[in-house]
Amino acid sequence: MTQKGTKNNLPPKWPDRILEFFCSSTLVEEMQGDLLELYEKWTCRYGIRKAKFLYILHAIRFLRPYAFKKISIKHNSGIMIMNYVTFVFRRLLRSKTISAINICGLVLGLASALIIYLWVEDERRVDNFHSKGDRLYRVYMRQHFGDQTSAGYNSPALLPETLKNDFPEIEYASGYAKVLRLSQQGDTYESFQLDDKVYKMRGSRAGEDFFNMFSYPLLAGTAANALNDPNGIAISRKMANLFFGDVERAFGSTLKFGSENISRDVAVTAVFEDLPSTASDQFDYLVNWDYWVEHDDFKKSWGHFGTYTYVQLKDGSDPALLEKKLVGYLDERLNIKKESNVKIELGLQHFGDQYLYGNFENGRPTGGRITYVNSMAIAALVILIIACINFMNLSAATSLKRAREVGVRKVAGASRGNLILQFMGETFILAAFSIVVALITVYLILPAFNQLTEKQIILPWRELKFIGNVVLTLTIVGIVAGSYPALLLSAFKPARALKGKVIFSSRTTGFGKGMVVFQFALSILLIILTMVVGFQTSYIKNKDIGYNRENVIYLRLEGALIKNYKAFKREAMRLPGVAYVDRSSQTPHTMGLNGPFVDWEGKHPDQSVNFIPTSVGYDYVKLLGLKIIEGRDYSDEFPADTTGFIVSESGIREMGLKDPLGATITVFNKKGPIIGIVNDFNGQSLHHSLTPIVIDFKESLNFGTILVRTKPGQTEEGINSLRKAYSTYNPGYAFTYSFLDDAFQRLYQSEQIISKLSSVFGSLSIFISCLGLFGLAVYAAEQRTREMGIRKVLGATTAQIFLLFSRGFVKLIVVSILIAVPLAWLAANAWLQRFAYRIDLAWWIFALASALALLLALLTIGSTAVKAGVRNPVDTLRTE
After folding, report:
1. Beta-carbon neighbour count of residue 21 at 10 Å?
2. Which residues pair with 678 in a beta bridge?
3. Inside any domain, residue 127
4. Which domain holds residue 739?
5. What tens digit of pLDDT does each residue of 375-404 get?
6. pLDDT tens digits for 856-873?
């Protein structure tokens, strides 16, 4: 026998509960009695542990079909279920205002979440559509100069072929040249001519293996032969239609290709389908890689770091193992000695990751655009949560009006489970209707959204993944938004409900207030972050970068213009509307080349200072509005100065020169004195810290950019006159130009898009939150109806009632502010660290956002409070 006083000797209780839940009540008692008798025998024979195990085992064996409870549906329950859907729509029509607000909140939340989801998915698809994408990698370089480490995707033009030959793990390798010369950052546009058709198209150079590696469909030609002809070219469908009318006539035909200082005929060896918007590198043509390298001595040097290298590994190859082999691969080719403080390493990045993870930290790719993608995904979740809380609060606000309905249904035989199913069903019906409206809304606003984000997003109606996510969202929203109201309403006691005397407990009202605090804290957080992003974007757009970029255009130096540059400049300077003309090896806003290229007398062997070098003509300083701090500018009055250099202020500080003017420095084997010191100016985006700049005189370069400053108010006239001069000095090349200010703004395109998106969705979040607050205000007014009537009878004014009514809500908003502000500061500070130049997180930003939230909350509450204050007390005090 078991000892009754010993708890551990008793059989486990949970098997009994399982039997009671599943089995018929007429059989449970008999089962439990048999089990207890057996348990006593097993305890004596086998001990407590084994007896408990046998008890559980035999309890499970009792779970047979014949023992299960019989499911019966009462007639009145069946009728209620049949009428549930009809009742939902009748109730919606009876409470038009609340129903409209409820549906509006859900629709806005769902539409916002859906459109952000589509944007996030589009971002994640970029470069991830290639069939062999799991084996495609991009080579990057880590450069160590003493204690400094930098990294980037640029690599020698000779690298692809040698990698393929030296490493058996590599199946294919291809170079790709997005930037052909120092002056170009971004896409390359070159001239093509067929008869009288002259256009500039976007394209590049690529190796023979390119179309074997990447899944760009070929409409004509083969992947093996598309780029193996030195005089061949692969063009897009768009380019084929533009020049030839269709693909068939384009294949095998010839175009005149104007590339830099060479104009030659190329035959169309392949036509590929226009690239999808999810390809990060967009091009309309590709020409042979080897021809390009062979005709440029600079690119045949291992010291040329100006191209990209892509590799495709053989199936089963380990990229980590290959990366280890690549660590010292360039040392011998670059004559880097082991005792040197210079070290260059190669790394591999999955090709599909380059778009989202394009930033480098400590020499390795870590983050980048993924920060914005994750931020927007979080914003979508936050807005959806706010919409669900809004629904919950509005349901709670109207629950008192349904007290008698709950009482009648319970008296009629409905169980709490029936009521929970009913109220959850109502929520799912509302959510389903809302998601349909949200999908229609997204469909209608997608064109405007695409214009804002420069995307080509469509609703993927036929994708199972999208349909599945919509259904999943509907399920989650239905459960989250409907569970609290369902549990709340189903808990009403029939007697009190029928009398209309239902009063919520402090726990219930506390939960509702907690939801409002949470909801508003999220909204205030979004408002603050929206303001920070907007202020930072405005700051970098308008910051003084050291030169005047207004009324400046730039065009590529190419074709006959290279040898005719001086004549073109003389002609252009006489044209109406033109103030200055000069040339530069790098455009002022994207000086991509920088490194320890400068030596000077007295330099410490371990000292390494990165400089941005740029070669210019006589009018560069005047054209950009730079200021000469000491010394003088280049001038034809001092021809000997062309052997010297102009250095920015920060460069002088970094070199530590006490008497810089006349000091001798060496840049790329050119040795000369410093003739002038110019003010600091940013040659890169403000994501980067200020880098010293060294300027030398080279007016006879065979590449670069022509800069033109037009006179204020005469830009259009100046451009029109330049077009005529250009066609005279550079026939066969299309005249294209860019505004320097517009190009500068494009450096911050991501920030500008995120700023606009955050403004839109931040505003929506606070609007939805105000709807939720309105719901709580309605609920509070319902609870305090008699109190307001009594106060009115005793002489309280509407203003006093408003203050009394609003006080509790103001406390909730204040708590929300106290929660949101520190979280917003942490998030905003982390985001601002991406910028070398950033705004200060001033206190007034947080104060302004908090005041705005408080003001909107008071306006929302005010309508309900004033309505309660002016209501006739006779109506509120009458007895039932």
Report:
1. 9
2. 628, 648
3. no
4. 552-743
5. 889 888 888 888 888 777 777 666 666 666
6. 888 877 766 666 666 666
